[in-house]
Design brief:
about 25% strand; alpha+beta; 9 helices; about 400 residues; four-stranded mixed beta sheet; hypothetical protein PF0899 fold; seven-stranded mixed beta sheet
Length: about 400
């Protein structure tokens, strides 16, 4: 009974996830509306996942009791569970391991730990940990090696004309752009004894470690990639983006003029500055939070109240969200300084994350059987495309000290 209830909860969760993807792809919604609706969907998915886990745990407890009764000759009505005379000792951990293998092992070793509902969960976790994905960029998914976008580079020419006057037809300039997601992969190893003697959560924990590492690597590529040492070109290295320096040799920010300038540049390029976001290294945000409203004042300029130290500071600049990533470099060269960092301001609706087949987590109990270990592998394939490079502004030369 509990297994069916868990399956129903997971099926509903998958339906909510599909609805969230439809919201993300809906061109009639603003970025703010999308973020609000997706946040509601994430909350519902988390609740359904909690319900499913509860049902699964109940089902496992009942199955464990049945298994102990059958294998050890126990009387289930007795007040204590103990091995009957002549029965075999059976540890709960061993039962859990056997049940886990029965559930997660498919027709081939590579299909282990890949039930239908696992991939959406992994994608959600990566989005929560990857600052780049969390900033609201558009995600385009594909099951193929690459994805081709039609790209309109220029509109047809129009002009004023007198009545009954023929206007020469013109064609807009268009092209096809093919994006190939690049692979990010990590592996870890667990002792089969640890898996057998512990709760199945040990595998979930190992998967979360891999997902966190993959998320950080995605952020490095998305922000810092140069197309060579990192096989994708990150935002700060996309050709023809807008850029300006805080100062010739870099400087510690003393005001928020750079943010006003960046937003103004987006507006001038016809980008959607209302839905723009900022991304920076945490050390730069630390500097910004200490900028005071007036000389000699203790009130931070970013604090939207009386300046009490008990009150928090919203992570926004001019009402736009600020995302912090430790993956942004703090060793850039700006004039004579080699300890500079970049602040990125961009319209996330003009940035595409192209992802192939989401996240794949596999448990391989065979390739390391000679050492009695299981190999856990996490893989995703991702790249990015910026159809309108002017929708990205890079502010260079930001120093934290």
């Amino acid at each position: 009974m509990y297994r069916k209830l868990a399956e129903a909860a997971l099926t509903k969760r998958a339906s909510v996830f599909e609805s969230m993807k439809a919201i993300e792809a809906d061109p009639t919604l603003t970025a703010a509306e999308k973020r609000s609706r997706i946040a509601d969907g994430e909350a519902e998915m988390a609740q359904l996942e909690t319900e499913a886990r509860g049902y699964i745990e109940r089902d496992e407890r009942e199955s464990e009791a049945r298994s102990l009764t059958v294998r050890s000759g126990l009387n289930p009505n007795r007040s204590e569970i103990e091995t009957a005379k002549g029965g075999n000792e059976f540890r709960a951990g061993r039962w859990l391991a056997e049940e886990l293998r029965a559930i997660t092992t498919g027709a081939t070793p590579g299909s282990a730990f890949a039930p239908t509902e696992f991939t959406p969960y992994a994608v959600d976790f990566l989005a929560a940990k990857s600052i780049f994905l969390a900033s609201g960029v558009r995600v385009a998914s594909t099951d193929h090696v690459s994805l081709t976008f039609p790209h309109l580079k220029a509109d047809p020419v129009v002009s004023w004309a007198d009545e009954a006057t023929q206007v020469a037809p013109t064609q807009g300039d268009a092209e096809s752009v093919t994006i190939t997601p690049k692979k990010v992969m990590g592996t870890t190893v667990l002792s089969n004894e640890v898996i057998a003697d512990s709760d199945p959560v040990i595998l979930d924990y190992a998967a979360q470690q891999l997902l966190r590492s993959i998320a950080l690597k995605v952020d490095i590529g998305a922000f810092e990639g140069d197309g060579t040492t990192v096989p994708i070109v990150g935002l700060k290295n996309v050709p023809n983006i807008q850029t300006f320096a805080l100062a010739t040799n870099g400087e510690i920010p003393t005001n928020l003029d750079f943010a006003a300038d960046a937003l103004g540049m987006l507006e001038e390029a016809n980008a959607d500055a209302e839905n723009a976001v900022f991304a920076m290294h945490p050390s730069i945000w630390r500097v910004l939070t200490k900028i005071k409203e007036l000389s000699g004042s203790a009130k931070p300029v970013l604090q939207d109240h009386d300046g009490s130290g008990a009150q928090g500071i919203k992570r926004t600049l001019y009402g736009r969200p600020v995302f912090l990533s430790s993956q942004l470099s703090v060793t850039e060269t700006e004039g004579t300084s080699n300890a500079a960092s970049s602040i990125l301001c961009y319209d996330p609706s003009q940035v595409f994350a192209v992802q192939r087949a989401g996240i794949e987590i596999f448990v391989d109990p065979y390739s390391r059987s000679d050492s009695d270990e299981s190999l856990i592998r996490g893989t995703t394939r991702i790249s990015l495309w910026v159809p309108n490079a002017k929708a990205v502004v890079r502010v260079t030369g930001a120093l934290s000290a």
